[in-house]
Specification:
Largest sheet: 8 strands, mixed
CATH superfamily of the largest domain: Vaccinia Virus protein VP39
Distance between the termini: 31 Å
Number of strands: 14
Bound molecules: S-adenosylmethionine
CATH class of the largest domain: Alpha Beta
Strand content: 15-25%
C-alpha cells in the first residue's frame, strides 16, 4: 500500500478500490468525495443516469466500507438536479441503499454556497446549497470537535459583563415547544470557542482549478480536521482537480486518490506540486 500513498491512481474508481494491494481491508481513516452527479456534465467526464446510479454506487460504497477503518468516516457530497420541473430523487434512494447495506447515516450537513451564481428559474429560486452526508461503519468514531469550533461571539461579552451572571442564566430553561431541548446559559461563561452547527458557509470555489465541479478546499478541510489526526490517510476516489489532496497535505495528513480522466490527473498533480512547494517553504522558514 505504501507506494500508493500521496499519489493519484489514474483509472476507474471501482477497479482500483477492489485492488487489495492498493487498498487493504481497514486501511483508510477518512473517505471524502464528490462523485459525478447523475445525468450531469457527461460532456466532461463519465456519468451515470439517475436510474442506474444507486446500483453503480452500491459496488463503490461496498469497497469503501471494506477499506475504511472501524472508527473511520465516509463523507459524500451530492445534490439532486432538476429535470422537467422535478428534483430527481435518486439521492434519497442512494441514502436508503447505503443504510440498507450497512452504513450508519450520522448526519446531513448543508454546504451553503455563499457565492452561488444568480439566476432565475420557473417556480423556484436560486439553488445555493448542496448536501454533504456523513456515514460511518459503527457508533464509535474518531471525532475531534475542537479543531472546528468557532469563536463564541460578542453576545457572551455582553451577557457575562464583569463576570456577572443573572439568576435567570443560572437556571436550566426548557424549550416552549415541548421538544425536551434545554439550555443553561452560564454553561457558556469563560468559553472562547463553541461547537459549530451543521450548516457550512463556504464560497463556491475560490481558486482556478480548471474543473467545472470542484469543491472549495475549505470543504474537505473542515471534515479532515473534524474526523482525522495528523498522518492519517484521506481517500478521494473521485479526485477531480485534487482538492481533497490539497486539504489533506496542508493539514499534515496523507492522501490517496483515484481519477479516471488524464486531464484532471494532470491538473491535480500540478496543484499538489505547488502545494508541496508552499509547504517546503513553510518548513524551511521555521
Ligand atoms: C464532481 S467531480 C469531483 C471534483 C473534485 N471534488 C474537485 O474538487 O475537483 C467528479 C470526478 O470524478 C471523475 N470520475 C467520473 N467517473 C469516474 C470513475 N468511474 N472513476 C474515477 N473517477 C471518475 C470525473 O472525471 C470527475 O473529475
Amino acid at each position: 500500500m505504501e507506494k500508493y500513498i500521496n499519489k493519484i491512481q489514474k483509472g476507474d474508481a471501482l477497479k482500483k478500490l477492489k485492488n487489495r494491494n492498493i487498498f487493504p481491508d481497514e486501511s483508510i481513516d477518512l473517505i471524502i468525495t464528490s462523485p459525478p452527479y447523475a445525468d450531469k456534465r457527461s460532456d466532461q467526464y463519465p456519468t451515470k443516469t439517475s436510474k442506474e446510479y444507486v446500483h453503480w454506487f452500491r459496488k463503490i460504497s461496498k469497497q469503501c466500507h471494506r477499506i475504511l477503518k472501524p472508527k473511520g468516516s465516509f463523507i459524500l457530497n451530492i445534490k439532486e438536479h432538476v429535470k422537467d420541473y422535478q428534483r430527481q430523487p435518486y439521492t434519497y434512494n442512494l441514502v436508503l441503499d447505503l443504510i440498507r447495506t450497512g452504513w450508519l447515516w450520522r448526519e446531513e450537513y448543508c454546504w451553503y454556497k455563499k457565492t452561488a451564481f444568480p439566476g432565475s428559474w420557473p417556480g423556484r429560486f436560486r439553488d445555493t446549497w448542496e448536501r454533504v452526508y456523513h456515514f460511518s461503519k459503527q457508533k464509535d468514531i474518531e471525532f475531534f470537535r475542537e479543531p472546528v469550533q468557532v469563536p463564541i461571539g460578542d453576545w457572551a461579552k455582553k451577557r457575562f459583563n464583569n463576570d456577572q451572571v443573572s439568576n435567570h442564566d443560572k437556571k436550566r430553561h426548557f424549550s416552549n415547544t415541548g421538544s425536551g431541548l434545554s439550555r443553561q446559559v452560564d454553561n457558556w461563561q469563560n468559553k472562547e470557542y463553541v461547537d459549530p452547527h451543521n450548516v457550512l458557509e463556504l464560497v463556491s470555489v475560490t481558486n482556478n482549478t480548471n474543473h467545472s465541479a470542484a469543491f472549495p478546499v475549505e470543504l474537505p478541510e473542515w471534515f479532515i480536521k473534524l474526523l482525522t489526526e495528523e498522518n492519517d490517510i484521506v481517500l478521494d476516489p473521485f479526485m477531480g482537480s485534487g482538492t481533497t489532496a490539497i486539504a489533506a497535505l496542508s493539514n499534515g495528513r496523507k492522501y490517496m486518490g483515484i481519477e479516471i480522466e488524464s486531464k484532471y490527473v494532470d491538473i491535480a498533480e500540478e496543484r499538489i506540486k505547488e502545494e508541496n512547494k508552499k509547504l517546503d517553504v513553510r518548513i524551511t522558514d521555521r
